[in-house]
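SEQUENCE-TO-STRUCTURE ENTRY
===========================
What this section holds: a protein sequence and its matching fold, both as plain text.
Tokens: labelled as protein backbone structure tokens, with as many entries as the chain has residues.
Question of interest: how does this chain fold, as expressed in backbone structure tokens?
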Amino acid sequence: MNTLLNLQQNLDDFDAFYDLLSESHEDLDEMQSKMLNNQLILLLSNHIGNLAVLREAFALARVKIEK
């Protein structure tokens, strides 16, 4: 499958990223946490700026959830 989406490890420090992600949700209720995730998706999607890449990412994420 030819893909535009980079599926290789691309973070210098995955553990630090995971800590940052977890800490950003601290002290938020479920609705606030969902809002934060939505804001992150919009901000990062705008940064990526390539609809084909975003389509691949959304499709892959959905497949992994539906299994």
The chain has three helices and no strands. The chain has a mean pLDDT of 93.
